[in-house]
Amino acid sequence: MVLQRSLVAVAILGSVYSFLAATVLMVLDAVDVAMTEAAVGAGLSTVLILATLYLTKPFESKSRRSVILPLVITIIVGGVIAWGTIGFPSFGDPMAPIQQHISPYYLANSLRETKVPNVVTAVLASYRGYDTLGETTVIFTAGIGVLMLLSRRRFKPINNKSE
Amino acid sequence: MKQNSIIRIVVKLLMPFIILFALYVQFHGDLGPGGGFQAGVIMAGAVVIYSLVFGLATAEALISLPVVRSLIPIGVLIYAGVGLFSLIKGRNYLDYSALHAEAATGQHIGIFVVELGVFITVFASMTAIFYAFAEQQKQNEEDSK
Q1: What is the biggest distance separating any 2 CA atoms in chain A, rounded to whole angstroms?
Q2: d(Cα A40, Cα B43) in Å, to the nearest integer?
Q3: Domain ranges, ordered by start, for chain A
Q4: Chain A positions in Cβ-Cβ contact with residue B114 (cut-off 8 Å)
Q5: Which residue of A has its CA nearest to B143?
Q6: Is A112–B33 a contact, with Cβ atoms under 8 angstroms apart?
Q7: Residue A83 above 90 pLDDT?
Q8: Angstroms from B60 CA to nearest CA on chain A
Q9: Integer distance in angstroms from the first to the last C-alpha of chain B?
Q10: Do residue A44 and residue B94 have CB atoms under 8 angstroms apart?
Q11: In A30-116, which residue ranges form alpha helices assigned H by DSSP?
């Protein structure tokens, strides 16, 4: 993916990567996230990236600057993040803080309190209703933002035929 | 892609199943995986693939840009409206227990309505963004003629 200069190929590889990530999430029993990853990451965003490439140039121009400094920074930051994960509790540990805090309450009471058997839905829409309202507003903002940006040209046509 | 009959027929056959799956994910979200966001994205995916294969004009005959554009805020308004309704009933904002005499049933109704709002906004936003890009391409093609 790094060595690829054709951005169309990069977009398709990104889509493949999203599908693989979706299968990983599926194995981790996060079906909701896997579904989102497959639909948004592999499907819609790939289409939008390809549409953008259609509007611009499908090839990456050669960078004039050296790649060594960004490479060093990336390796250092990645190393620090990987080093930080050493302190995590091991995967699926029942004594991990995340399993001890509020999850047992949701698992025990969400069916009685909301009559919704799917705990994920109950938490998202009811216990964390404010968050989900915020998320919906974010999507709303993104939608109208893109619409405003892209439909402006209709009133002010730019003559770039010579390009 | 208008000439490729294999893609046309496969997409035509798959369309009802994609839409059915989106609705299943939406209305089965209480019991199984999924919910408004996933369902909205799948539904938008259906419109996108339809538009890619049969052209933008055919997809806009299915659901036009002004409709999509007005659906974007409607979803948020539905969600916020549920919150306002419980405020009017004298409860906390977004406390779904106000929607029904029995608190748990109220929660169930509230989750259902709220998920519907999420579905509408997600579906409309994704479709509108895609339409915006597609229109831009059409514009460019007309400019270059």
Answers
A1: 67
A2: 11
A3: 1-60, 95-163
A4: 125, 129, 132-133
A5: A161
A6: no
A7: yes
A8: 16
A9: 20
A10: no
A11: 31-36, 45-55, 68-84, 97-100, 103-114
What tokens appear for A65 in the block?
């600057």
A120 touches chain B (CB under 8 A): yes
Rounded to whole angstroms, how far apart are CA atoms B98 and B87?
Answer: 9
B121 Cβ contact list (under 8 Å, min separation 6): A136, A139, A140, A143, B40, B71, B72, B73, B74, B75, B76, B79
Residue keyed to tokens 């009959």: B5
Residue A76 φ then ψ, to 5°? -65, -50
The reported pLDDT for the residue numbered A71 is 92
The position carrying tokens 């497959």 is A38
Dihedral sign, Cα of residue B46, residue B47, residue B50, residue B53: negative
Q: Show the tokens assigned to B82.
A: 């549920």
Task: Yes or no: say if B110 and A125 are a contact pair by the CB < 8 Å rule.
Answer: yes
Name the closest residue on chain B to residue A135, using Cα atoms: B118
Condensed to tens digits (0 to 9), the pLDDT of residues B52-111 reads 888 888 888 888 888 988 999 999 999 998 888 888 888 888 788 777 777 778 888 888
The answer to whether B129 contacts A130, with C-beta atoms less than 8 Å apart, is no
Whole-angstrom Cα distance, residue B93 to residue B80?
9
Total length of chain B: 145
Give A-chain residues touching B45 at CB under 8 angstroms. 39, 43-44
**Measured between alpha carbons, how far is B8 from A86 in angstroms, rounded to an integer?**
51
